[in-house]
User: Fold these one by one.
Assistant:
Number 1:
Amino acid sequence: MNSDDDSRERHENTSADKDMREARPATKALKSVLAGLLLSAVTLAVMAVGGEVFLRERAPSFKTEWPVVFDPAIGYRFQPGAEVATTNNLDYWNRQRANSLGFLDREPVPPEQRPGSCHLVLIGDSFVEAHQVDIKDKAQVLLEQMAAQKHPELKLTTAGFGISDTGQINQLPYYDLFARRQAPRIVVLVFVKNDFSDNSALIQAVNHAHDPAHQNKLFARRKPDGGFELQPIEPDWQKYVLAPPPDAEGSGGVRAWLRNNSGLYRWTEDLAWRGRLFVARWWYGPSAAAFGSDRIVYNAHLLAQRPQWAALLGSWDVEKTPAIDEVYFDADIAPIFQEAVAFTGFALDQFQERSRRDGFHLIILATQTMRRDDGSGAAFDRLARLAAARDIPVIDLYEHIRSHGGRVADARLRYDGHWSPQGHRWAAEAVLDYVGAHPALCR
């Protein structure tokens, strides 16, 4: 080997050694990264398995069972005697059984089996349905127990008739077909902020992609002279539903499988949903923050193409304020929401006609949702004006809570807007305070 070859070989060896020395830190870094990723993946897998096991142990009813049936004379109610299992995967996991009438309450007691009783019924939506709490913790049950202790002379008995997503017009069949048979002395309408919109066939059509004139619940409509009349339930309402958006999500896929089979996934998704709602309300304000707003906007534009709905829907800037249950806190509301308030007045007229005919006293319990947390309440004021014009007493649950030193936020579940057990207790107390102060209601 000559000197040139020897020199070249030493240079190549030196270069190779240098390359190896430079490569060692990079190789070590890569190995460290891969090891870290592997450790993270294992940790996440262990946490996922642990979380799944924990939630399955803690939440045996993590998959909702909602056995409702459609009755053309009523709308929707639960299958009588069926078990209802519900959860928001955050602060309630509950199972209860519907009574023989299809409501989440005790079995009804016929009038002849409670002679001399002063029977009181609560009629409302999801706040009276109250699938979030056990039957023993519901307002009507607590009210009967409290009355037996504080005012035994009243001989107060109670019942509850509530189904989610209904307003007072939708609830008229609950009285006509069920509560009336119980011969109540007092009927309490439990009013929630969304009830205004729930009394409008058009707004509910926008919300649920229905045809306003062919609804699956009892509604009201305008007569040619401008007055109101009841709009019968459409037995074949499904034939008239609106076409879905072109990009609508299907019911299948990986997400559906995970929701049906993974408690951890349901918990994570539900928590994320509420987190997005909190951020949206903070950023955009309550009246502009609505989940499903794209669907609401789509349905509104679709119905606005029909001449009979064009004027009302054209007056509503749906892109700006898609939160149909929050607008009633605003000073000025679009004509479509003004009409919803008018329909609510018609619903009160219908209940008042029944009170005169059947001889019961009509009362409204305004839930704490009718006021903002700071006590402001344009929604409450709208309801109060409707009630005052008809001489219907209104019990203000917000004021009851505050006057008794309570914290209004404690009336609802932490991750859900419905009454907590404490909320049910306050509602029962508020009604009992009023009835106790007006014993003539039971005579």
Note: The two ends are 125 Å apart (CA to CA).
Number 2:
Amino acid sequence: MYEYGWQDLLRWQERYPGLRIDTGQSKMRDLLKDARLAVYTYNSTGYLEAFASNIPTVIFWDPAACLLRGSAIPYFEDLKRAGVYH
């Protein structure tokens, strides 16, 4: 986990002392097994893994910063029509 000088881990631990934080040592599939909610802040394949694992998932990102591949747009439109993507 790269630290940008923001003291992220320390700030999370101070605010939520019981929070378990994985710094990238665990496999994603193992983390998803125990998850009740997955949150993704950028466009990646990670949210697809969460969907496939039947984990409730929240995805948010700036579409101007993370563009969708043209071939993915129809699928996001399907998710929008289903009320899953907003």
Note: The chain has four helices and two strands.
Number 3:
Amino acid sequence: MTKPSEQSRELARLVVENVRDFAAYAKDLEGHVLSWNPGVGHLLGYAEDEWIGMHISVIFTPEDLAQGELDKEMRRALEEGRSEDKRWHVRKDGSRFFANGLLMLLSDSEGVPRAFAKILRDDTAQHQTEEELRRAKEELERRVAERTRNLAHIGETLLREVKERRAAEARVKGLLRRVVVAQEIERGKVARDLHDNLGQELTALKLSLEILKAECVDRTDLLGQVEAVKGIARRVEDELDFIAWELRPAALDQLGVEAAVEKFVMEWSKHYGIESNFHAVGVAGLRFQPEAETNLYRIAQEALNNVYKHAEAGRVEVLLERHPDRIVLIVGDNGKGFETNAAVSDERRMGLLSMKERAEQMGGTLEIESGPGAGTTIYARVPLGEHV
């Protein structure tokens, strides 16, 4: 009967000889092959009689031999008892495969090194898969990096364009402010000229008509004509006063936007025969920056003129109200209204655009609420802190 130790050695031999997925062999301390298993033939392509006695360097690639990888492997096994490696090897036919290897030092009972045992496993498929994954990852990282650079470039371009646009908008707003200031100065000059020059001429005309009337006391046929001319002179004077007020009311410079808007609402109501009411909340006695006062006044003026031209309204409510962080001008009418998303006349569109630009010039907003048959309400909201 076979002893257990002999049986174990026999089983180990059978395992080594029948495992074909691994190449297992022994080599002496100089690297010459001492034994083999069938896996050597399957993996490396050598017959037993070719393999025994061959120097193991034949399966190393020229590059690894040039870098001394074989000597490093054997030296590491001598020093540490084992050496693991993953590298390309060469078959008998010259083809290459990627192997996962383990080199172990074999020593006798006294610890003297006698030989090496080497086990090789073909990991070419797994290595190729890993390489493909690595290349795919590198390609993905390259594309991500390239895309990131492109996005960064686009971001920089957009940021530069935004800065340029903001600078251009600032220049346009600055130019617009200067135009508005120049326009208001010119409006004031024209209003004063109308009042001073034409007003004096109208006063002289009325005095002349009074003298003429006195001289025609016996000419009843002429008295009626003189009175008619006096009526015309009064209407011209009233129209002249209203035009001068529309151009640049003195109250705007002297008393502020509250008094100017209230006076304009009253004069506008009387001139066009449309019932109007003005309310002010929290602004009594306050003065704002001249630009803010002028623009708020012009928005109220444009809104009321739009009411007269387009709304067919019977009543208008105007509110000037101070909030903690803003001042609000509201102009509402009970007119026919309009669909805010629909096309409007060029004249109305220009009026709405002018009001919107004036509000935005002060950092504010203009909102319009309207609908067919529902009247129209305009809200102009201006930041308070920047303009008080």
Note: The longest strand covers residues 96-107.
